[in-house]
Request: fold
Amino acid sequence: MRETAKQAMAAGGTASAMLETVDLSHSFVHNGAAQPVLRNISFTIRRGELVCLIGRSGCGKSTLLKIVAGFFAPSQGQCLLDGKPIVKPGPDRGVVFQEDALFPWLTVRENIVFGLRGGRAVRQARADEVDRLLDLVGLAGFGEYLPRALSGGMKQRVALARVLIRSPQLLLMDEPFGALDAQTRDEMQELLLELSRQRQQTILFVTHDVQEAVTIADRVLLLDRDSDGIREALQVDLDRPRDRTSEQFQLCCARLQQWLRQ
Amino acid sequence: MGTKDTALALLLPLTGLAVWFAVSATGTVPGYLLPSPATVGEAGLRYMFGTAGQGPYAGRFPGDLAASLARVLLGFSLAATLGIPLGICSGRLALVNRLAASIIGGLRAVPGICWLPLALIWFGIGIKTTVFLVAMAAFFPIYQNALTGARLVAPIYYQAGAMLGVSRVRGVFAILLPMAMPNIITGLRLGMGISWAYLVLGELTGVPDGLGATIMDARMLGQTDIILAGIILIAVSGRGCDRLLVLMMRLCFKSARRQL
Reply:
């Protein structure tokens, strides 16, 4: 396990940086008073990297993810994707939400191709791609199901498939497995790691679960409501697949836990 | 529906019919107040299938139904055409809601029957008055339910749409309307029910044809059997329209088919 100082992390690897946030600050206005949530957040994510954002609830990690998604603009600072400022949501940044955000009147297949441009011919050509994706996320044969007939874990697989078909540069995941049971969560983490490996997918993953972060992340960033910038950063250099019972894994978790408690 | 459900659904109507038979057979209630089911059935059949000359109102039902249906459908379509877009806009746009809320809230507080005198002055006796009354009455439930439906669509669905590359304008048709569809249909069904109520009200004012006109006319001639037959036929027609409306919506919209 190697730990790098957070300044070095933040500055490091700009050459291959896919996502860069520059002095990002955000406040929500409550009853006329500005409540700062994020302060001077600067970090970068390299191509192919899987970065976990952790922090207690209310620390602004979901807010940060939504700013990167382009759902709203930060109060100050900016986000750059491949050097270009992010101004609005787009298919180059696929989002998987914690809640079920599938369209309930569309089948799994229709949910996956929802919003894709092009006429019937293009859709036909996409049909094979949908089949491959369904296979990839372990839902082969479920294409004609409606979301309400699926379990929570299956819905999240569909949510994943519908962003993957757009081959997003960046995959943004907002506590996507938070509502799932432990067994399903493990399966989904394995699926995600498989995708990240196969497709060299760059992923920003928000979670409050320390063990989840250490299981999947290349690097963990810790956010805190009161901190200026990213409070702590941890490079997780454990071999994959990671053994949760190993001493080093436990050490990583213990360190993050300790940071969270501070 | 299982046999048990069917039996349950028929239990009350059959009991009512049995009581009606008993009351008529024993002569507890005189026939001019409540004719026997047989008399009403006969009158109804004559009204529906008879030929002119077989008796009062014989064979007039098809013409009455056509006239009434035209009024209901015109008034209802008008209400839906205005109510759905306005409701959706009010549900999504705070500005429109603030603009519309006071006037629509105020108009809603006016009992529908109050419009009758005004409508008679404006439109005179005829189809326009009825259509106006029907549209006025059906508008509010349609508007209110469209508004609620639009307001209840969680922001996450727009975010999901935006993230998938669906523009705001396309999102209205691709996300907002389908999501609000169950509420829109509830509003349309309520509106359709009220349309029939106000249709009869509008037809009581001296138009020559229509189901409401016929039962009012039958009152003057003391034809209680025709009044009862007419009421039953209005109930059946109203119910038929409701079923047809749901069927049409399900046929036309995937979001109706899969969310109802």
